[in-house]
Design a protein that fits this description.
Elements: H1 8-14, H2 18-29, H3 40-53, H4 57-69, H5 74-88, H6 90-109
Length: 114
């Protein structure tokens, strides 16, 4: 199992749900995300799709950023959102598009992506 650095988000929640944070770090990010059968890029694409279809905007924001870090491009994320509009609903995809726009704008302001 990989050692996963903690995030500020998880640290804020640790006092309230310590076991849940521990499971996220050890199982989800320390094991599942590290399995070689799927690339992190592919896992990011799957995760973004799942969060879009289940309308989880807070987690979607985090995973769009993570997807970019894992090699997805802004264009690919846009295509994913567009494709899912016809399978998971127009409104959820429009909401996801707004979130993606905000993430891209914020990251570009911080010059963390090209």
């Amino acid at each position: 199992m990989a050692t996963v650095p903690t995030s500020a988000r998880r640290e804020r929640l640790r006092k309230t749900v310590p076991k849940m944070v521990e499971c996220a770090e050890k199982v989800l990010y320390g094991d599942i995300w590290e399995r070689k059968e799927l690339s992190k890029r592919d896992r990011s694409m799957i995760t973004i799709a799942a969060l879009l279809t289940s309308f989880r905007p807070d987690q979607l924001r985090v995973h769009i950023t993570r997807g970019l870090e894992n090699g997805l491009t802004q264009v690919e994320i846009g295509e994913l959102i567009t494709h899912l509009a016809f399978y998971s609903g127009w409104a959820s995809s429009m909401s996801a598009a707004q979130i993606a726009y905000e993430v891209f704008e914020e990251l570009e302001k911080n010059e963390t992506i090209k």
